[in-house]
Amino acid sequence: MKVSSSREICLNVFQDRANDTALSLPRCDGARAGSCVQGIGTFATSPGSEVRFGHANRRAKERGMSLVEVLVALTILAFALLGLFPLFLGAVKTAASANQLTSANTLVREKLEELNGYPRNDVRLAVPVGANSATFTNDLPSWYQPSTTLVNFGATKPAGVGWYVYPYVRAYTVEQFGPLPVPAGGPDLVWMTTPVTEPPPPAPQACAVKLVTVTVRPTRGPFPGLRQTTQSLYLRSPNG
User: Please, are residues 181 and 114 in contact by the beta-carbon 8 Å criterion?
Assistant: First the structure.
C-alpha cells in the first residue's frame, strides 16, 4: 500500500493473512477522501483511518480462553480425579489381596503334596500316644532375602541388609479316624468320623485314615490375616 502526497491510496495487492495468499485488487487511481467498496472488504481513504477487510473482521471476533476459565476447568478436573482416587486405591488393594491369596493357596497345596508322600507312620504325621490329633507349628522360614533368595529360620534378624520378615505362616494338624478293623459293611460316614486314639507302642496303628489340615495365614500385605487359606486331605493307611 502506497500513500501519495495528494493523500491518494493505490492498492495493487492485498495479502490475505488468514489464507496466506495474495489477491490482486483493482486500482483506485485518483481516489480522494471517501471510500471504495471492494468485494472482499471495505477500506477508507481518509487520512489516519484504518484499513479493514473481511478476514480481519472475522479474526477480530475470535477470542480464546481467559486465565480464570482455565483455572475453573482445572479445578473441576481436580475434583473429578479426587472422586476417582478411592476407586483406583481399592483396585490396587484388591489386586494385591488376590495375589496374596494365590500365594497362600500355593503354599497349602505344596505342603499337602509333601505330606502325602511320607509313610503314614512318619514322625511328621505322628500323633502322640493317648491323643487322636497333633498340631505342627510353622515350618516356613522367619526371614528371607529377595536379592539372593536366601531364607533364615532364626528368631532374630540376620546380619546384613536386605532381610525381610517372611510374609506367611504355615501350620497343619493331623487327626486320626476310622477304628480298625474296617466294618464288614464297608466304610461309612459314622466310621469315617469316629476319632481314634493312638495306642502305646509296640501296638500297631489303630486308625484307617488320617485327616491332614494345612492352614496358611499372611502376616504382611494389604489385609494381613484376612486371606487365611485352609485345605484338608485324607490319607489312607496301608492296613486301612
Answer: no
Assess whether 94 and 165 both reside in one domain: yes
Answer whether residue 78 is part of any domain. Answer: no
Number of domains in the chain: 2
Instruction: List, for residues 101-125, the tens digit of each pLDDT value.
Output: 899 999 999 999 999 999 988 999 9
d(CA 219, CA 214): 16
Q: Do 49 and 101 reside in the same domain of the chain? A: no
Q: What's the DSSP call for residue 196?
A: -
Whether the pLDDT of residue 240 is over 70: the answer is no
Residue 163 phi, psi (nearest 5) = -95, 135
Q: Kindly report the length of the chain.
A: 240
Residues 140 and 232 occupy one common structural domain: yes
Residue 195 near residue 127, CB atoms below 8 Å: no
Inside any domain, residue 71: no
DSSP E strands, the chain: 2-3, 9-10, 13-16, 21-24, 35-38, 41-44, 51-53, 133-136, 143-145, 150-152, 164-165, 168-179, 207-218, 229-236
Same-domain pairing of 105 and 44: no
Dihedral Cα 222, 228, 229, 232, nearest 10 deg: 170
Enter the pTM of the model: 0.62
Domain that holds residue 222: 84-236
Task: Please indicate, yes or no, if residue 159 is contained in any of the structural domains.
Answer: yes
C-alpha distances (whole Å) from 110 to each of 140, 164, 181, 240 are 12, 22, 32, 25
Angle ∠(44,45,49) on CA atoms, nearest 5: 65
Same domain, 34 and 119: no
Task: Give 23's strand partners.
Answer: 14
76 domain-assigned: no
